[in-house]
């Protein structure tokens, strides 16, 4: 595959990509808890299945009020004013991000001065969080590494603007990445030129080609004759990177949103919560049974005197009338069946998203446990977070290596250690690390480096500890010993 192969089929790639990402906008709205607004028409249809409710709401969402046995539109009020948005999607995303990259990962890297400057300048932790957020919402997230005046610049890219081109000989591997966006045409001689496509094409050898069809809609011309050696940092590999989502699309290099398959659950949650809010104030406002004659009429079926309140206040002239008044049905009598069903829907959604009530902070158990106990209580969430970290580790390692190569012209060797975002007590931390040292899975030097020591300082501290231990043993064996003023001597 070469640049001409892609240019000759560029419009086809763009057209096919529109089909791939056609549902991305929907998932973005779900992630922002706009389920109710997104599916407003469907919610209205479902609410109107109740014959009595159809008197209070029109097909366009207009709300009505009953006045003198007539249904009058409520000025300026629509179904939007009573739609209850579902908060689970955003809460689930925030929980997964917090327990995967909520705490800044520990980077074991010799050049700490460069590392600190680079992370602060590029706000790496925020960009990593954004990558994970995108990966969960849309299924895929991307970033590119560039050389801008000798400094590495990291830019997060979005799925709507990225096309993955399969390799010619192996469709399971990436042959190239295409970034494209639509730019506004310039104004020349007072005339607004039409919008045009801007394209960047990234190859496995690190070369990047930039084109646009600004001057000829049927042909893409090079924006620059340079081969963009400033972007090709000499690593012989992609400078465009893909953070893959958790669910794979069969036979495709793309991934699914974490919300895939949950649309129906979210819609039903909103319908039930909306109907509960609306019915409580309108349709299910229960009838009153009273002893007086002024406000009531005989129900021909029950023979009892009833008053349909319809949300109106009733004034009693005689206190005995008020004392004799009771509800035919409790005002919240219908909520038990509604919320019982909601519990089932939520439980199913929790399982698919990989979160539970404790990790979401909506269970009392979460407030009485911490550290290791809390981790055990949210095992499904932590398992999902480990999957996120696994997909993030390789792209993030490339990010640091390529940035260092751009700025220092040297290869970098580093190790990334993710934390789970759950703060342990100092006692739990020490016990966990001591166990790892005892079973020879972690060195004392690594622990000291993680605490902020340089490698040289860590070894010096261990020599001091060994010296102390030797002196203590001599005290026990010989009874007396001259303790040197400088243990490091």
Outline the structure in words:
With 489 residues, the chain is of the alpha+beta class. The protein is 42% helix and 18% strand. It is built from 17 helices and 20 strands. A hairpin with a 7-residue loop joins strand 6 (162-166) and strand 7. Mean pLDDT is 81; it is low at 227-231.
Topology record:
Blueprint: H1 3-8, H2 10-20, H3 24-31, H4 35-38, H5 40-47, E1 62-67, E2 70-78, H6 88-101, E3 106-108, H7 112-122, H8 124-138, E4 140-148, E5 151-157, E6 162-166, E7 174-183, E8 187-188, E9 191-192, E10 196-202, E11 208-212, E12 221-222, E13 240-244, E14 247-248, E15 255-256, H9 263-281, E16 288-289, E17 297-298, E18 305-307, H10 319-323, E19 326-327, H11 335-353, H12 365-368, H13 371-377, H14 379-408, E20 415-417, H15 426-438, H16 444-450, H17 455-478
Antiparallel strand pairs: 1-2, 3-20, 4-5, 4-13, 6-7, 7-10, 8-9, 10-11, 11-12, 14-15, 16-18, 16-19, 17-18
Strand order across the largest sheet:
6-7-10-11-12
Strand percentage, roughly? 15-25%
Unreliable stretches: 227-231
What is the percent of helical residues?
Answer: 40-55%
Quick one: biggest sheet?
Answer: 5 strands, antiparallel
Overall spatial form: flat
Assembly type of the shown chains? single chain
Distance between the termini: 64 Å
Number of helices: 17
> Mean pLDDT score, rounded?
81
Instruction: Report the structural category.
Output: alpha+beta
Cα Rg: 32 Å
Number of strands: 20
């Amino acid at each position: 595959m070469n640049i001409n192969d892609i240019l000759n089929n560029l419009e086809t790639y763009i057209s096919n990509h529109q089909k791939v990402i056609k549902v991305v906008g929907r998932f973005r709205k779900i992630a922002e808890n706009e389920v109710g607004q997104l599916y407003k028409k469907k919610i209205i249809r479902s609410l109107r299945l109740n014959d009595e409710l159809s008197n209070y709401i029109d097909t366009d969402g207009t709300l009505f009020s009953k006045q003198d046995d007539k249904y009058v539109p409520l000025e300026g009020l629509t179904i939007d004013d009573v739609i209850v948005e579902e908060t689970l999607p955003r809460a689930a995303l925030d929980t997964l991000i917090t327990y995967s990259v909520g705490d800044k990962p520990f980077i074991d890297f010799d050049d700490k001065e460069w590392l600190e400057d680079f992370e602060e300048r590029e706000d790496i932790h925020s960009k990593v969080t954004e990558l994970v957020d995108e990966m969960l919402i849309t299924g895929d997230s991307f970033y590119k590494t560039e050389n801008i005046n000798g400094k590495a610049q990291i830019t997060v890219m979005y799925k709507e603007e990225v096309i993955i081109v399969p390799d010619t000989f192996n469709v399971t591997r990436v042959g190239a990445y295409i970034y494209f966006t639509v730019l506004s045409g310039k104004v020349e001689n007072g005339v607004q030129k039409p919008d045009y496509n801007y394209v960047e094409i990234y190859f496995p050898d690190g070369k990047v080609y930039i084109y646009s069809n600004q001057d000829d809609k049927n042909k893409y011309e090079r924006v620059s004759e340079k081969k963009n050696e400033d972007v090709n940092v000499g690593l012989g590999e992609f400078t465009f990177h893909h953070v893959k989502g958790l669910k794979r699309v069969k036979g495709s290099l793309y991934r699914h949103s974490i919300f895939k398959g949950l649309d129906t659950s979210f819609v039903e949650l909103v319908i039930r919560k909306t109907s509960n809010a609306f019915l409580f104030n309108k349709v299910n406002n229960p009838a009153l049974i009273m002893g007086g004659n002024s406000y009531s009429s005989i129900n021909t079926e029950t023979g009892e005197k009833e008053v349909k309140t319809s949300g109106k206040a009733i004034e009693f002239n005689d206190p005995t009338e008020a004392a004799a008044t009771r509800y035919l049905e409790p005002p919240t009598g219908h909520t038990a069946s509604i919320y019982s069903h909601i519990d089932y829907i939520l439980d199913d959604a929790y399982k698919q998203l990989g979160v539970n009530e404790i990790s979401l902070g909506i269970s009392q158990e979460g407030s009485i446990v911490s550290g290791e106990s809390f981790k055990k209580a949210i095992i499904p969430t932590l398992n999902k977070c480990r999957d996120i970290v696994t997909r993030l580790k390789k792209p993030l390692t490339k990010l640091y290596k390529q940035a260092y190569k751009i700025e220092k012209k040297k290869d970098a060797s580093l190790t990334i250690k993710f934390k789970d975002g759950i703060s342990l007590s100092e006692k739990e931390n020490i016990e966990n690390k001591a166990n790892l040292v005892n079973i020879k899975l972690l060195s004392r030097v690594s622990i000291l480096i993680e605490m902020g020591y340089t490698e040289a300082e860590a070894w010096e501290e261990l020599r001091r500890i060994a010296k102390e231990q030797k002196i203590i043993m001599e005290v026990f064996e010989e009874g007396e010993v001259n303790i040197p003023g400088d243990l490091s001597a």
